[in-house]
Amino acid sequence: MDRLLSLSYRVARAGTWFGCGLLILASFLIGIDVVIRKLFSLSIGGADELSGYALAIASAWAFAYALLERAHVRIDSLYVTLPRWVRATLDVLGLAVFVAVMALVAWRAFGVFSESVKLDAHSMSPIATPLVYPQALWVAGLILFVLIGCLLLVRVVVAFVTGDTATVHRLAGSRSVTEEIEHETQHLGQADEPERGA
């Protein structure tokens, strides 16, 4: 199962890079549109619409990576004072509720996508974007999150049942300040390695 989680991590990271690429393209498009408007009083048309699609798609594809990195915001003022087994219980429950809510979001999003397919829906804009294309990418990102979330939940539940609270915390717990510092230091060390080798 840990091998599957490792594969999921690589897939989620690739999805995040894909979303980042879309946002960079959207920012370039908006920049070009602003310059053309200023200099020539013209507009590409649809730059704001396309950037909205890019933001929705990038967010959906980044959710899974944020989950695996434990990067979602949590209010842990009371959490850090509780005994380890109580924290592990809250971690399992929190993850289960989070995945359930996102499964509902993904299901509703798929319903929107299905309706767009049936109606051959297009945006009400000058570029009349066929909505099935951005919605398909958006829904795919949400489904990826749910699949990875379910896999993570199963792994965490197995660890919890066997009494391995350390694994529960490592996979689903809120990071302490010390863990955040260690994590960032590790990433900085990895980024510096190519420079030292050069």
What would your notes on this structure say?
The chain is mainly alpha-helical and 198 residues long. Residues 193-198 have low confidence and may be disordered. The protein is 79% helix and 0% strand. It has six helices and no strands.
Short overview:
79% of the residues lie in helices and 0% in strands. The chain has 198 residues and is mainly alpha-helical.
Report the structural category.
mainly alpha
Strand content: under 5%
The helix/strand order is HHHHHH
Number of helices: 6
User: What is the alpha-carbon Rg in Å?
Assistant: 21 Å
Taking the sheet with the most strands, its summary is: none
| Mean of pLDDT | 86
Instruction: Please provide the count of β strands.
Output: 0
- Runs in which pLDDT lies below 50 for 5 or more consecutive residues are 193-198
Distance between the termini: 37 Å
Dominant shape:
elongated
Helix content percent band: over 70%
Using brief descriptors, characterize the structure shown.
198 residues, mainly alpha, 6 helices, 0% strand, elongated, disordered C terminus
List the helices and strands and how they pair.
Elements (H helix, E strand, L loop, with lengths): L1 H39 L6 H22 L15 H36 L12 H30 L3 H8 L4 H21 L1
